Every structure is written in structure tokens, then in C-alpha cells.
TrEMBL record:
Residues 1-32 form the signal peptide. Residues 43-149 form the Folate receptor-like domain. GO terms for molecular function: signaling receptor activity. This is Folate receptor-like domain-containing protein. Belongs to the folate receptor family. It comes from Holothuria leucospilota (Black long sea cucumber). InterPro entries: Folate_rcpt, Folate_rcpt-like. Keywords: Disulfide bond, Membrane, Signal, Transmembrane, Transmembrane helix. Pfam families: Folate_rec. The chain crosses the membrane at residues 175-196. One of its GO terms (cellular component) is external side of plasma membrane.
Length: 197
């Protein structure tokens, strides 16, 4: 084997070693970050973790603060909605699933869900004609603020530090969990190493 070929092989091995070290250091840090998301709605006793059997709020299945029994209990005790649009149902469903969000540490404070005012106002506009029992939401409430306050949310102007609607949840796209991302990175690493040799 010539010197230039062995030098090239050593460089490739060094590159693979550096990539492996980066991945081995980065993976535990990311996994620790993912698993240390405190579920502040539940105090100090719970961290977000996978809940693959959620009957509703299933967009949180890869990392959820809620349990199956809690989802069944909370959503089973809610009023039935009638004559609503698909967009309205999506917004109301998302709003009522706040307790499953792994991001609640960003917007749950002192026993209150801080909700973005735009989420309240847009939901109210979309759901004005939706019937809850015998009354339309627009007849029961004058505004999105009044609607959200009646549901015990704390309204926050702007988009910072507040629970906001994520339309991608209902568009068919699924949020990629960090675990899936790490598997992809490790696969890419293996492919690069194989390709280099």
C-alpha cells in the first residue's frame, strides 16, 4: 500500500472517529434535554415521555405530559359540539389538549395556562356558529378573550411564552421527535463511514 493511500485512509478514519465522538457526546445531551421536560401542570412529579396509546391529543404521542386515562376523563366530560367546521373542531381539540403538551413549562405558570390572544381570537372567529348544547359560541361569548377566560385560560398578547395553535398537527405532517432525528443522524454516520472505506 502506498503512503498516499494509507495517509488518505488515516484521514478518513480520523474523520469517522471525530463524527462518532460528536454523535456520542451530542446524543446523550439531546436525550437528556428531551426527557427532562417538566410537566408543570402536574407539579414536580412528572416529566414528558412517550404515550403511544392516547385516544385523543395523539399528536403528542411521541412526548406527552398526559396519560391515556387523563385524556379520556377530561375530554369525555366536555360538552358535545354541533355544526362545527373541521377547522373549529381542530382548534377546540388542540386547545383542550394543553395538558398533554411537553412544552407546558414555557407557558404554564402559577396554576394558569397562558394562552396567546391570537389563538383565542382566531378560535372564536372560526367557531362562532358552533353549537355547545343549545347555544352558539358567538351567542355565549362576545370575544375570543371572553371565550378563553371562561375556560380558565390567562390571555397573553403576542406569541411569546404562551400556548399557541399549531396547524401542522392537523395537516397530516407529524412532528419529528428527537429520537427519530437521532436515528437518522446515526444512520447517516454509518453510511458516511461505509462510503469512505
Amino acid at each position: 500500500m502506498s503512503a498516499s493511500v494509507s495517509e488518505m485512509l488515516v484521514r478518513k478514519l480520523n474523520l469517522c472517529l471525530v463524527l462518532l465522538i460528536v454523535v456520542c457526546v451530542w446524543v446523550p445531551v439531546v436525550m437528556a434535554e428531551e426527557n427532562s421536560l417538566l410537566c408543570t401542570c402536574y407539579g414536580e412529579a412528572r416529566i414528558a415521555e412517550p404515550q403511544y396509546n392516547l385516544p385523543n391529543c395523539s399528536w403528542y404521542k411521541n412526548l406527552a405530559c398526559c396519560l391515556r386515562t387523563e385524556v379520556t376523563s377530561v375530554l369525555g366530560s366536555m360538552y358535545m359540539i354541533h355544526s362545527s367546521t373541521k377547522a373549529c373542531r381542530a382548534r377546540l381539540n388542540y386547545m383542550m389538549c394543553y395538558f398533554c403538551s411537553p412544552d407546558q413549562h414555557k407557558w404554564y405558570d402559577k396554576g394558569k395556562v397562558n394562552i396567546c390572544s391570537s389563538f383565542c381570537n382566531d378560535t372564536f372567529e372560526e367557531c362562532k356558529t358552533t353549537m355547545l348544547e343549545d347555544l352558539a359560541i358567538g351567542d355565549m361569548f362576545k370575544s375570543g378573550t371572553e371565550f378563553c377566560e371562561a375556560n380558565s385560560f390567562e390571555i397573553v398578547p403576542g406569541k411569546d411564552h404562551c400556548f399557541d395553535f399549531d396547524p401542522t398537527v392537523f395537516s397530516g405532517s407529524d412532528r419529528m421527535s428527537l429520537c427519530h432525528l437521532l436515528v437518522m443522524i446515526l444512520s447517516l454516520f454509518c453510511w458516511v463511514c461505509v462510503a469512505l472505506f
